[in-house]
Design brief:
By secondary structure, the chain is of the alpha/beta class. It contains 17 helices and 18 strands.
Length: 449
């Protein structure tokens, strides 16, 4: 029987499991996850006020209900068990570990107090165990978000949205109480390039315009160059974005908004200003100009600078994968090199029985569904390679983890039910378990009751 290990339980891991069972219904899958709970960015990344998207977890539950599927949560591959050990005991290993860190700005003041990554903030309000000890000072009146992708828009929206609307979601209680005390009135979202190149989608943009008590101000003229116009003609996404931005420009219907979202284009942060204690006092931006052909325009710094006084900065300029011990890694792209999903070294030599899917394979691009076709390619490659790979040493996984407490899928279903019932008590969708310690306390309590 074919036995596969999948490392990571986000969307790309589950789509790989789905495709594997479709082609090998009698095969076996063990899925390993570093956190005590499954679903990766679906749980820890999707905004709490986007509950519709989270219903995808029902599909993952169905995949996990296959009799030959097992889940090992709270198992850190590389720490609790080595990747080499796993390689020895399975026909193949599929890495679906995502892109765990953020790209840096690389400017003076990057690391000062009050400069954060969007990942930290999103993880914090979404109950991700890694970020629960973080503190965000929301006492300042001005926040700056650098980047214009959908994650940046999420951060802006969470800072701007009426807290009572958020309180019904699965956002953490810690985040709600901090947002209730927030004094932020102005939020700047800054992009290096122009409106035609912005990565957000019209859907996300429109949502900003519908927030109660919030007005959206576009600070730049929406005059498009010839190259921009060509980009606009080629992309309905760009056309929809520009139309929405023009609507914002035309209407400032709320004369005295409680909060204002400022959209700034053609601006690159070049320095974060701090006081004597190292706390943020503002950010310096340099105006940019676009150079190059349509579709590949680059932002070039000009000599014009301006300052925005602010007390907190979030950078949302992309994610980066991190290397796994003993697995080839491309330091330039922060991904694992591969041929159609089969891991290879820098010289193109195939790397035994290790395969890769999702963001760690292709870089942080696309939406959740993009991982599906990606995983289909990887599983197809993996199954074709199996006859050439050595047979694994038989050993049952629980005995590998004899001295380590893990979370099974049945355990997760108990946690899931607990989170939802606790949520009902508080009038919200769910009240998340935010640490392994809490998860095991709930499970121990459950087994005694």
């Amino acid at each position: 029987m074919t036995r596969i290990a999948i490392i990571g339980s986000g969307p790309s891991g589950f789509y790989a499991a789905q495709e594997f069972f479709k082609k090998e219904p009698d095969g076996y899958i063990d899925m390993f996850e570093r956190l005590p709970t499954p679903f990766g960015l679906l749980r820890g990344g999707v905004a709490p006020d986007h509950q519709q998207m989270k219903t995808l977890s029902k599909l993952y539950d169905r995949i996990a209900s296959h009799p030959n599927f097992r889940f090992f949560g709270h198992v850190h591959v590389g720490k609790d068990v080595s990747i080499d050990t796993i390689r020895r005991h399975y026909h193949a290993v599929i890495l679906a570990v995502g892109a765990e860190t953020d790209r840096r700005l690389g400017i003076p003041g990057d690391d000062c107090v009050g400069s954060h990554t969007a990942t930290e903030f999103v993880g914090w309000y979404n109950g991700h165990p890694d970020y629960q000890s973080r503190v965000f000072n929301l006492n300042a009146s001005v926040a700056v978000v650098i980047g214009q992708g959908n994650v940046a828009v999420d951060v802006v929206r969470i800072l701007a949205k009426p807290v009572d609307d958020l309180a019904k979601t699965d956002i953490t209680d810690t985040a709600i109480s901090a947002l209730r005390q927030s004094r932020i009135t102005d939020i700047y979202m800054i992009g290096r390039r122009g409106p035609a190149q912005a990565a957000f989608t019209e859907l996300e943009l429109t949502e900003l315009g519908k927030l109660a008590g919030v007005t959206v101000v576009v600070h730049d003229d929406l005059v498009l160059s010839d190259a921009d116009s060509m980009e606009m003609a080629a992309s309905s996404k760009v056309r929809k974005n520009i139309t929405q931005l023009e609507m914002f420009k035309a209407s400032s219907s709320i004369k005295t908004p409680q909060k204002t979202i400022h959209l700034m284009f053609y601006s690159s942060p070049t320095r974060i200003h701090t006081d004597a204690n190292g706390h943020i006092t503002g950010i310096q931006c340099t105006k940019t100009a676009l150079m190059g052909e349509a579709g590949s325009q680059k932002a070039i710094l000009t000599s014009e600078t301006y300052d925005i006084p602010c007390g907190i900065v979030f950078r949302s300029i992309g994610y980066r994968g991190v290397p796994l011990d003993g697995v080839p890694f491309n330091e330039a792209t922060h991904t694992i090199p591969h041929k159609n999903g089969h891991v290879c070294d820098q010289n193109g030599q195939l790397f035994g029985n290790v395969f890769v899917t999702g963001w760690i394979k292709r870089g942080p691009s696309g939406v959740i569904g993009t991982n599906r076709s990606d995983s289909i390619e990887t599983v197809t490659t993996c199954l074709a390679a199996l006859p050439t790979l050595p047979d694994p040493h038989p050993l049952d996984t629980p005995s590998l983890l004899a001295n380590h407490r893990y979370v099974s899928y049945a355990d997760w279903q108990k946690l899931d039910a607990y989170e939802q019932s606790e949520g009902i008590k508080k009038g919200k969708v769910r009240d998340k378990v935010t640490s392994a310690k809490e998860a095991f306390a709930v499970l121990d309590n459950h087994s005694h009751s």
